[in-house]
Amino acid sequence: MAPAVEHRAELLAGAAVLAAAAGFLIWGFGDGFAREPGYEVRASFPDVDGIAVGTEVRLAGVRVGRVSDVQLNPQTYMADARLTIPEGIALPSDSAALIQTDGLLGGAYILIQPGGSPENLAPGDEIEDVQGAVSLLSLMMKFVDSQAQDEEAQP
């Protein structure tokens, strides 16, 4: 084969590999590149352990949105999270946001518990009723400590 033809074949093979790699990147990270349509509400948590940009927001166990931003508020020392909710889902103004985990080793997500208010949250409003992440390690330490105190109290 002539050197020019061989060089051209290598160039085409390299271009095909790069195109396939780009396709896999777009397919794998497609949700991360696209901005979800909807409106944002805020929630300030005392602890957001396990929550990051892209974390699921669920309502009745169904994914309805994602966390679009998490930052520390230097005035309150709370973690301010911005949640993107689809336009078709209207949340009552007295809804609650709780950080939950999927089992012992699962990841964290934010669970929205809708309230009963006739008024709905508007874009940019804040969910006032929040519950931060519960540390499984601290719960286990409390349990072990209570068991040790019970053993000391017995004669």
Layout of helices and strands:
Blueprint: H1 3-33, E1 39-45, E2 56-59, E3 62-73, E4 78-85, E5 96-101, E6 108-113, E7 126-127, E8 129-131, H2 136-153
Any overview of this molecule?
The protein has 155 residues and is an alpha/beta fold. It folds into two domains: 1-34; 39-141, no CATH class. 32% of the residues lie in helices and 31% in strands. The protein has two helices and eight strands. Strands 7-1-4-3-2-6-5-8 form an eight-stranded mixed β-sheet, with no helix packed on it. Pfam families: MlaD. The chain crosses the membrane at residues 12-30. It comes from Paracoccus benzoatiresistens. This is Outer membrane lipid asymmetry maintenance protein MlaD. Residues 37-115 form the Mce/MlaD domain.
Task: Name some characteristics of this structure.
155 residues, alpha/beta, 2 domains, 2 helices, 8 strands, 31% strand, flat
Oligomer state equals single chain
Taking the sheet with the most strands, its summary is: 8 strands, mixed
Shape: flat
If you compute it from the alpha carbons, what radius of gyration comes out, rounded to the nearest whole angstrom? Answer: 24 Å
- Total beta-strand segments: 8
Concise summary:
With 155 residues, this protein is an alpha/beta fold.
